[in-house]
Design a protein that fits this description.
552 residues; alpha/beta; Rossmann fold; GMP Synthetase, Chain A, domain 3; Thiol Ester Dehydrase, Chain A; eleven-stranded mixed β-sheet; six-stranded mixed β-sheet; 13 helices; 30% strand
C-alpha cells in the first residue's frame, strides 16, 4: 500500500486484509482460531448488539477483543478504548454519552447499565459471511487516555487511519522480513501500542497472535511455545527486564519489540543475547500511534513510518500525516534530522511518562489539591525512567493537617490512573511557594533532599491499662502482647512512610512492655525495602524489629 492508495477513493476497505477464511488469526492453549471462525463469531455478536453508536471494549482476551471490534464495525458503530477499568473512568464516559454500552469477557469491578458478554458459542454460519468492509472515513475508535485534568482526553481515529498503521508499522520495525509472524504481547489490547501490534497487525498486517496477555516469564515462555515460528515478542522494558533476569527456558524468538517507556541500549543488548533475536523499539504517542522505530543496539536515531514525515514549523515539531490531512505536534523534545529521521532529547517540560502513560504534573497536582483536607500539594518524579525496566514512580508532598499519607493516597487513587498514584506521600507544613504563589523547582528539590535521604522517625509507644488486650493476659501482672505491639508499630510506620508493611523480617523482644511504662521508638529506613525499629526504656533496648515494606 502506498500513500496514494491511502488518500484515494472512498470505497470500503476490508476488515481483514489479506483475507483467507482458513488462515489462522489467533492461537490459544485450545488450538488455532481461523479468520472464518473469527468473522462468523463477530457476525453472530453483531446481531445481538443494541442500536447505539458507542461501545466500550473491555475484553481482555485478544480474540474476543477483536471479535467485539469487528462486530461493532459491522454495525457501523464506534469502539471506545477506556483509559482503565475503573468506575470513575466509566462514569466519565457515560456522562458524555448516554449511548455508550460495554462489551466484556469477564465481570467489571462495577455495575454497568448495559453490558454484553462476548461468548464463543454465538456465530453465524461461515458460508453466510461475506468479505466485510468499512468506509475509510468511518470513525472506528475513540482512544481515551488518563488525561491530566481529571477528565480523560479522547483521540478519534478513522478506519483508514487504523489500516494505515496495520500496513506501515511492520516495515518500520523490520517485521515485514518475517512471513506470517506470530505475536505474543504482554501489553493490553486497549493500549494503542498493544492494539496496533497485536490486533491491527493481525487484521491488516498478515500476522497472527496469542489470545492471552502473559506478564510473568513462565507464562511468556508458555505462550511463545503455543504459537508457531517465526515468533515476535511484543513487550515493555519492565517485562523484558524480568524475562532477561529469569532462568526460564524460552522457545526460539525471531524478533522483540518494545515500547511504552524508554529502553536502554544496555537492556536491549542483554535481551538480544538472552533471546537471540534483534530488539526493536517503537516511539509513539496516542494522538499519532506508533510513529518511529529503531534497533536500539544499532542507533540512537529513529526512523519514521513511511506514511509519516517530520516537519518543523515556527519552532515547533510536528508529525505530518498528509494522507489524512493531519499535523500532530510532538509531545516530546525532538531534533528533526530529515523528514523521516529524528532524535529524541527527552520529555517536554511538565509531562511525565510512566508505564507508557502521559500526564501533566500540574494537572495531577490539581487533582491532589481537590481532596478534602488537603490544603496544598504537589507531585514530584524523583528520577526519569532510564530504560532499565524499572518503572519510575511519583511521590507527593502534601499539606494536610490531621490526614494520613495512606488516606490521601487511597482518595487520589479514585481520581486518576493507578500508575500516577504516588508511591509515598510526605506530609509537610509548607511546600515553599514564593510571594506570587508559584512553587519553584528549588523548593521541590529541597523537599526531595529532605525526605528522600535516609529516614529517621521517633515516637513513644504506650498502652493504657484499660486496653482490652490486657484482660486475662497474665492476671495481676499484665503484659502487652507482642501481636499488639507489632500492630501498633506497623500502623505507625505505614502512616509515616506512606507505604504498606507487607511482612516482618525479624522481631526480638528483650523486655516486656508494661502498661503505663511505655517505650521510646526509633524507626530508620535507608532504602525502599525495609524499616528498622528500635524500642528502648531509659536507654535499655527492649525490642528490635525489621519490617518489610511493600509497593504502592
Amino acid at each position: 500500500m502506498t500513500a496514494f492508495d491511502l488518500a484515494g477513493g472512498s470505497a470500503p476497505w476490508p476488515l481483514l486484509d489479506p483475507f483467507d477464511p482458513k488462515s489462522v488469526l489467533f492461537w490459544s492453549q485450545q488450538g488455532p482460531l481461523t479468520a472464518g471462525q473469527i468473522l462468523s463469531r463477530a457476525a453472530g455478536l453483531a446481531e445481538r448488539l443494541p442500536d447505539r453508536t458507542l461501545a466500550a471494549n473491555y475484553c481482555g482476551n485478544r480474540d474476543r477483543f477483536s471479535i467485539a471490534l469487528l462486530a461493532i464495525w459491522m454495525r457501523g458503530q464506534t469502539a471506545v478504548f477506556p483509559a482503565d477499568r475503573s468506575e470513575r473512568s466509566h462514569d466519565l464516559l457515560t456522562r458524555d454519552s448516554a449511548e455508550l454500552y460495554c462489551l466484556i469477557d469477564e465481570d467489571l469491578p462495577f455495575s454497568s447499565a448495559t453490558s454484553i458478554v462476548v461468548e464463543d458459542d454465538h456465530a453465524t454460519a461461515e458460508e453466510d459471511i461475506g468479505r466485510s468492509a468499512v468506509a475509510p472515513d468511518h470513525p472506528a475508535v475513540k482512544v481515551f487516555t488518563s488525561g491530566s485534568t481529571g477528565k480523560p482526553s479522547v483521540n478519534e481515529k478513522t478506519w483508514g487511519m487504523l489500516v494505515a498503521g496495520g500496513k506501515f508499522i511492520p516495515p518500520m520495525i523490520d517485521l515485514d522480513r518475517l512471513e506470517r509472524p506470530a505475536v505474543v504481547a504482554t501489553v493490553p489490547s486497549q493500549h494503542m501500542y498493544g492494539f496496533e501490534l497485536s490486533v491491527m497487525n493481525v487484521l491488516q498486517g498478515g500476522a497472527s497472535a496469542h489470545i492471552e496477555r502473559p506478564i510473568y516469564p513462565a507464562d511468556i515462555a508458555r505462550c511463545l511455545g503455543e504459537v508457531p515460528p517465526p515468533r515476535v515478542l511484543t513487550t515493555t522494558p519492565v517485562h523484558l527486564r524480568a524475562l532477561v533476569e529469569s532462568a526460564v527456558a524460552l522457545p526460539a524468538v525471531d524478533q522483540v519489540v518494545s515500547a511504552t517507556a524508554p529502553l536502554s541500549a544496555k537492556l536491549a543488548a542483554a535481551a538480544e543475547e538472552r533471546l537471540g533475536a534483534p530488539v526493536w523499539e517503537i516511539y509513539g504517542f496516542t494522538e499519532a500511534g506508533s510513529v518511529a522505530g529503531r534497533r536500539t543496539t544499532a542507533t540512537q536515531d529513529w526512523r519514521l513510518r513511511a506514511d509519516f514525515s517530520a516537519v518543523d514549523e515556527d519552532g515547533r515539531q510536528y508529525v505530518d500525516w498528509s494522507a489524512f490531512d493531519r499535523r500532530i505536534p510532538f509531545p516530546d523534545l525532538v531534533e528533526i534530522l530529515d523528514s523521516h529521521r529524528l532524535r529524541l532529547h527527552g520529555r517536554a517540560q511538565d509531562i511525565v511518562n510512566i508505564a507508557g502513560k502521559r500526564a501533566s504534573l500540574a494537572g495531577l497536582s490539581a487533582l491532589l489539591q481537590q481532596i478534602d483536607g488537603v490544603e496544598d500539594g504537589a507531585l514530584w518524579l524523583p528520577a526519569e525512567d532510564q530504560g532499565e525496566g524499572k518503572v519510575a514512580r511519583l511521590i507527593a508532598f502534601v499539606v494536610a493537617p490531621g490526614q494520613t499519607g495512606e488516606a490521601i493516597r487511597q482518595e487520589f487513587r479514585k481520581r486518576t490512573d493507578p500508575v500516577f498514584v504516588p508511591r509515598q506521600v510526605f506530609l509537610v507544613e509548607s511546600l515553599g511557594r514564593n510571594a506570587t504563589g508559584k512553587l519553584p523547582q528549588e523548593s521541590l528539590r529541597g523537599l526531595a533532599a529532605r525526605f528522600l535521604g535516609p529516614v529517621r522517625r521517633e515516637t513513644e509507644l504506650a498502652v493504657s491499662p484499660q486496653h482490652p488486650c490486657l484482660e486475662g493476659h497474665f492476671p495481676g501482672h499484665p503484659v502487652v502482647p507482642a501481636a499488639v505491639i507489632l500492630a501498633e508499630l506497623t500502623a505507625w510506620v505505614e502512616a509515616e512512610l506512606g507505604r504498606p508493611v507487607v511482612g516482618i523480617d525479624s522481631a526480638r523482644f528483650r523486655a516486656p512492655l508494661l502498661p503505663k511504662t511505655g517505650w521510646s521508638v526509633v524507626m530508620e529506613s535507608s532504602d525502599d525495602r525495609e524499616a528498622s525499629i528500635t524500642c528502648d526504656r531509659d536507654g535499655e533496648v527492649c525490642m528490635t524489629a525489621k519490617l518489610v515494606l511493600g509497593r504502592v
